[in-house]
Specification:
The structure is a single chain. The chain has 104 residues and is an all-alpha fold. It contains 4 helices and no strands. α1 runs parallel beside α3 (54-75) and α2 (40-48) runs antiparallel to α3. The chain starts with 15 loop residues before the first helix and ends with a helix.
């Protein structure tokens, strides 16, 4: 199982139990995000940061959250007001550099 030999930014190898727990928390993140429409990161990020460094937990949360949002958007594509969505997406892209600067 060399695939699961993941290391932290400090070079410390993660234990398989930590990896499996983080995977379970990501399922919880997705479940809460789909059922409530928000709050996946709010419920799971504090728990994930107990096991992983913030520099690993944040991108993981963003990737899972983005995948969940894309799936939810696909499911509701017929009911979406795309003109309003375009404005929100545009301002989201303007905020990306601010977030990257804040995390660096």
């Amino acid at each position: 199982m060399d695939f699961f030999n993941l290391f932290t930014p400090d070079g410390v190898m993660l234990e398989p139990g930590v990896i499996y727990t983080v995977i379970a928390l990501m399922f919880l993140y997705t479940f809460v995000g789909i059922c409530a429409g928000f709050g996946g990161g709010l419920t799971t990020m504090p728990l994930i940061t107990l096991m992983l460094p913030v520099k690993m937990a944040t991108p993981l949360s963003v990737i899972v959250g983005t995948a969940t949002a894309i799936y939810a958007t696909w499911l509701s594509r017929k009911e979406t007001d795309w003109r309003s969505a375009a404005v929100l997406i545009g301002f989201s892209f303007l905020g990306i550099p601010v977030g990257l600067y804040a995390l660096s």
